[in-house]
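To whoever picks this up:

The nightly regression suite flagged HAD family hydrolase as changed. Nothing in the input moved, so I suspect the structure step. Input below, exactly as stored in the fixture:
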Amino acid sequence: MPVLVASDLDRTLIYSAAALALTMPDARAPRLLCVEVHESRPLSYMTETAAQLLTELGDAALFVPTTTRTRKQYQRINLPGPPPKYAICANGGHLLVDGVSDPEWQAVVTARLADECAPLAEVQAHLAAFADPLWLRKERIAEELFAYLVVERELLPEEWVKELAVWAENRGWTVSLQGRKIYAVPKPLTKSAAVREVARRTGAALTLAAGDSLLDADLLLVSDRGWRPGHGELHEAAWTAPQVTALPERGVLAGERILREFLKGVRETP
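Regenerated output under the current build:
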């Protein structure tokens, strides 16, 4: 039975130029591979060593990219190694099988959202009414499943995010601040649920996982072993769990370390 490796992408395996955290002297910086181009410009990177490790991992385990990105945003990433059979997008809202969203999983997600939380329209209206144009730059709806705001982080009042989180909690939603984006996501919409479905379909004997944000906490909790980097929401909150290892590495070198840990975990599996 395969080992299932479910990993968040942004700021876990791949990094924008602003998130690389290259603190060493320039001459000692790792060689980088661009893995995403957007509007004809390079956008996301991993080290060349990480790219080789990911290729090895794709040959040794069932690697499942697990992201909050929409399908369109995910599909512009060009990861090294064999194309993943499964991928999870929209924070678990879409389960891609050979690049195509699985209709059975979509139906399950739609039913859960209708039964367990306030509708997207209510949350969208609240965000539109209370976001301040002083710091708001963009409002977005992702896959008709959840909402997010792009903000000027330096101008964003910390209390505003806390108040939004309390409001959302009472309506079955959760709030996550990641870089310049504030996500409002229905609680039933989780990466963990989609990963459990992939494990069920494939008969995976072991699940390994990694992630950096609060939206990855449920993913790490359902894994047999998990890792988080030395940056991001989980690091800032000092979040931990018995099966989760907090790594000291930050930035793109954390991505490299996570892939080494994945490969080690796969190779140690009987």
